[in-house]
Amino acid sequence: MALDPADFTKCCKDSGLLMVIKCRKENSALKECLTAYYTDPAFYEECKMEYLKEREEFRRTGIPAKKRLQKLPTSM
Prior knowledge:
By secondary structure, the protein is mainly α. It has a domain at 34-62.
């Protein structure tokens, strides 16, 4: 049975400092999940296109995506 990557987070929160020992199985499952994404060519292309789009917008406006997505205050 495959573990959900969220299981690693829960295990770490529940185990405290002993997480290194207690969460080995969950950590391995998380690594497998991440490796699957890192080696997927379609996911790589999707991330690349998103990055290039954000870079183009930054070069055009000079405003980073993080700042651009923040909402302006309604009362000034």
